[in-house]
Design brief:
Layout (H helix, E strand, L loop, with lengths): L10 H24 L2 H11 L5 H14 L6 H4 L6 H22 L8 H33 L2 H36 L5 H18 L1 H6 L7 H4 L4 H5 L5 H18 L2 H11 L4 H29 L1 H13 L1 H7 L7 H8 L3 H14 L7 H29 L3 E5 L2 E4 H20 L14
Antiparallel strand pairs: 1-2
Amino acid sequence: MSADTPTRLTISARHRARHWAYWNGAVWAIGNGLASSTLVIYLALELDARCAGLGISLIVAAPRIAGLLRLAAPALIGRLADRRRFCLGAYLLGSLVLFGLPLAAAPGRLPSAGASMAALIALWCLYHLLQYLGTIALWSWLADLAPLEVRGRFIGRRERWMVGGQAVAMLAGGLFTWGWHQNHPESARWIGYAIPAMVGVGFMIGSLLPLALMPTAATGQSVRGRATLREMLAPFDDPRFLRLLAFGCWFSFFNGVTQAAQYIYPARVLAFSLFAILAFRTMMRVGQLAVSPWVGRVADRLGNRPVMMVSLALVASGPLFLFLSTPRQPWWFVGAWIVWIAYAGLNVCLPNLMLKLSPGDSNTPYIAAYFAVTGLFYALSTIVGGILLDLFHNATFNPLGNWHLDFYQFSFLFGWITRSLGVLVLLVVIEGPARRTARS
């Protein structure tokens, strides 16, 4: 039987399908690690040396604003194509857009640096929008392949494959850019950033082969077809889901508001190279690779919320290490990447809890609502943070009398406190049993 045809899968067939999902995650992650947002930001700094708070914020935030269109995904799935073809098509188109980004935005290709920056941001947005749409279909598809009782372990193992792929790719990409700039000092620096990004696109396209071989189970949205208007609005009338959405918005907002400072401070104040930043990211990914399957097993046994609370408390302390970092003592910065290993708990448990609180026979509206709304909060706060950085980067703050803080120190202290308070917001989330059916 063709993989295109939804069918009742045997246990062995589900095991094979999950292995194809692991391979898809690993190969895609290699591509994503080579074409990372950090690399695109360094490319943007080459386009415009004056690129500061707002410019970096737009690169980080604009894709999330465009991602609000994810709310339309449930209506498009089934109208344009079934869930499987929709996923494959969106990922393929997104990869092709990303391939054209360094070519279109290369310095000197367009009349001005501003035009190049605009082209970079526009193509970066379109790439992410297509990836977001494909991901909604993919999460719905993956939910059918793993029963609730083992879904945490499945997501944890897939996360391990993904962070492993990203770790290898980011380190390789960082080494390549460093070697390119050392051995080709006469060439334009942007070329050293563009080459690994374009190679990464090849891996992203290659990751579609395991998806093409992964069957579709005859359950869920694959059978129901496109969502009705009532189903699309159901997440916003579901008290349990709204509690999770409230937490997601809180964490996204206070995570985004310091993003411009977190990107610019290591690059321009602490003077870390792209290779160093990617090496830190690799270290973090290796740590996540080690703990992700274990996190999934714990979530299946104890629930997602307890794991998320511990993970969030650790993740929230990251800005505190940035607060302690100075040009004379930059090594504190490493501590942030160590505690950010705990993102593994959120990366596994948040989607697992989102699927658990979604009705199994109509989950795409819930998936779309969660990612679209939280993404919008992240985007808006990132832009606000970038504007504040541009306005107050030379300001001094006195929160406690004689205690003088510059803008970066104040931002990182604020980020630590507000993210930590998210643990209290998590207390209102009710996990409970899974939702099996759509609201009537």
